[in-house]
Design goal:
7-stranded antiparallel beta sheet; two-stranded parallel sheet; 25% strand; disordered N terminus
């Protein structure tokens, strides 16, 4: 004789065996990883940096990327702790970095530079070609120390160029109407005397 309690347990077990299987939970699809910021090409200056250099890096990160100051005895600014300009030892000729309070603020190309901007411009190119390439986005102001046609042509990548997060490229044009220096980075690209 089967006891009622055993009968109930047997019925429950039998019912459990015939119960439809619950679907296995589907794993949630992983969220797509954010796209990494694409660094500039190895030999191209942009408003955001050059090769491994990105505006906002620390001096230690600059040195890890392109080496320490190639001439540590040279004066890069009146107070190097607050503003300094130097040539990293593994950087291309004519490329200088400017740091403000130990952070990369801008990158400068001088007369011996072979580096180009992301628009393909370099030292010695005509101001007219730069103005034609950038059109209405080019801001042109007179040169601080030289007579026309010397001028500055600045193109901002951000709407508010007074913000610390502003990014742009400035072309310094000499009296011959040609580029004699280029700066890419934050608001410090508007400096006309190194750190000032």
């Amino acid at each position: 004789m089967i006891r009622p309690l055993m009968l109930t347990a047997a019925v429950l077990m039998l019912a459990a065996c015939n119960a439809p299987e619950e679907p296995a939970p589907t794993p949630a699809e992983p969220a797509p990883a954010p796209a990494p910021e694409t660094p500039p090409a190895a030999n191209v200056l942009t408003a955001n940096g050059f090769g491994p250099l990105r505006i906002g890096m620390t001096t230690a990160e600059i040195e890890a990327a392109l080496g320490p100051d190639s001439d540590p005895g040279a004066v890069g600014g009146p107070d190097p702790a607050s503003c300094d300009m130097f040539h990293p030892s593994r950087a291309p000729d004519g490329l200088l970095v400017m740091t403000n309070n130990g952070v990369l603020a801008s990158i400068w190309l001088t007369r011996t530079a072979t580096v180009e901007t992301d628009r393909g411009f370099n030292i010695g190119d005509d101001a007219a070609a730069i103005k034609a390439a950038y059109g209405a986005s080019a801001v042109v102001v007179p040169h601080k120390y030289e007579a026309a046609p010397a001028e500055y042509i600045t193109v901002w990548a951000t709407a508010d160029h007074t913000s610390p997060n502003a990014r742009g490229v400035k072309y310094e044009i000499g009296q011959d109407g040609k580029v004699k220096a280029i700066a890419g980075g934050g608001p410090s690209i508007e400096y006309v005397e190194g750190c000032a």
